[in-house]
Each structure stands twice: as C-alpha cells, then as structure tokens.
Amino acid sequence: MRAAIIEMARTRSKPNKAAPKASTPEEPPVSTAKPLPAGTSNPPKLFVLPKDASKDARIVTLDNPANATPSRYFFCPEKGFYEFTRIAAPKKDCRSWLITGEPSENQDEQPTEEKQDPARIGSGYINKTADLFIATPMDTLFLILPALAPKSTKDTKQHFLALEDYLDKLSSSCSHWKALLSQYPSLKPLVERRMRVLCDTVDAGDETMFRISMEKLSGVLLKKAERMVKRGLPPSMEDKLVKTALEVPVMNIKREEESTVSTTEQTFTETTTTTTTTTTPSHSAAYPTTSAGSAQSKKTTTR
C-alpha cells in the first residue's frame, strides 16, 4: 500500500505554470510645470528716477570727470543732470528682484492669446542681482570742469575764451554732449550760469569771455565740503565708523609672529643638519673616536 502511494506521488504530473502576462509599458507622468524662458545676457535694471522729470528726459553717456571713463547719467532739460548711485546687497546675502507690470484698468480687454494659452507665465521678470540704481542730483559744474581746467600741470597759462569755444570742447569730447547741446536749448544757459561761478569774466564787445579761477573753484569746493560736514553722516555710518571703538587686529599680529618664528626655526634646523652631515664623515675617516667623542663633536656643531 505504501509503495503504491509513493508510486502515485512520483507519477503525479506537476501543475503547469501560469503563462506570464504581457507587460504593458508604463506611461511617464505628464508634467504640469511650465517651462521658464531662457535667461538673457542683458537683463533689465531697476532705476529710481525723479518724480517730476520732464517727458524729454533721457539717459546719456558722458565722460566721468573723476576718471575720464564713460558713465551713465540722467539728464532732464528742466532740472539738469543726475548721477546714478548703485545700492547692492552684500554678496553673502542672496537677493533678487521680481519685476512685474502694473495691472491694467480694463482687465477684460486683455489679448485673446493670453487667455487661451495655458502655458503663458506672464510678463514678469526675475533679476538675480538685487541692484538698485538711484538718480541723485549732480552739479553740472563737475561735468564741464574738464573743459575749463588745463589738461596738464604744465599748461599754467590760461586764456580767456568765449562760451562757444568751451561748448565746442564739450562737443568734441563726447558725441552725447553734442546731441544734448543741439537738441535742448535750455542746456546752454545752464552751463553758462555754472561757468560764471567758477570763472573770471571779461567783456569783449558784445561777448563775454571766460577763464577758470582756481581761487573761485577752491571756494566752491570748500562750501560743498562744509555743507556735507554740517549735515553729518548717515546714522548707520556714524554708528559703525564714529561711535564704535576700533578693534585692534590681534589675529593678524599673531599670524605674522608665528610665521616669522617658524621660518627662523626651519632655517636654523636646515643649517644644523647640513653642518653635521658634512663634518661627521671627515672625523670618522681621519680620527676614529669613541661614542663620547662623537657626542662632543655633535654638541659643538649644534652650538
């Protein structure tokens, strides 16, 4: 009976394995993120301009009177020149600007393309550098000073020249000066008023001649400096540079002393090693000594 059961177990057919199901490729999930437009090499900049500036105001490129390099200025025919002061965040702080347009009064009058295109992001812009350029008033005197003053210290002799001669100098120095003088007639009286503050004048018939006066120039600069001192520094600069006591740079002194000591020790060690290596073989070859004699020789060399 037992043999029959074993025989049946051996002859029993194994169940057929289930056929593998056909694998269906999984579709990748559809991304709902909207693609961002590519960056630009000339990103927009954020400016703070005068509120009541003329509609004819513009940004011009003139030579900086301090270093004679082209710089940007804001010119208003009614108010004069403005220079741009750059305000930037510290490099360790990551800051950026999100620039968007003002909402229109009639929201229903938007183009149909903006309503129908679901992938449209908008007209905003993200600027990775959080720089702010503020237009601050600038005395026209400084811009015309290169044309009035001598180009070198050797030119000590100055002649009286007419206003048109100085304007020609400005026009030849920069193309934007020429465009401003030709397009805006109000600029010429402005330049003449500032020249009268700096120059000695001589009447030659119906025409006035000008020549720069170093005494008047020194007086104008001194008054500007006194006005700055009278108003004082901004509170943040005064707290940091005036009220706070200066700290002694102890770390720098320690580092200099440590580097000097280490350099001296290294030089002394190299000299001792070289002397010992050079003198020891000569003594061992000519005068064989004991261990005490070798120790005495090394001690003398180290000294």
TrEMBL record:
UniProt biased composition (Low complexity): 260-291
Pfam families according to UniProt: RNase_H2-Ydr279 (PF09468), Ydr279_N (PF17745)
UniProt-recorded name of the protein: Ribonuclease H2 subunit B
Record-level GO cellular component terms: nucleoplasm; ribonuclease H2 complex
TM ranges: none
Organism: Pyrenophora seminiperda CCB06
UniProt feature, compositional bias: Polar residues: 292-303
Localization in the cell: Nucleus
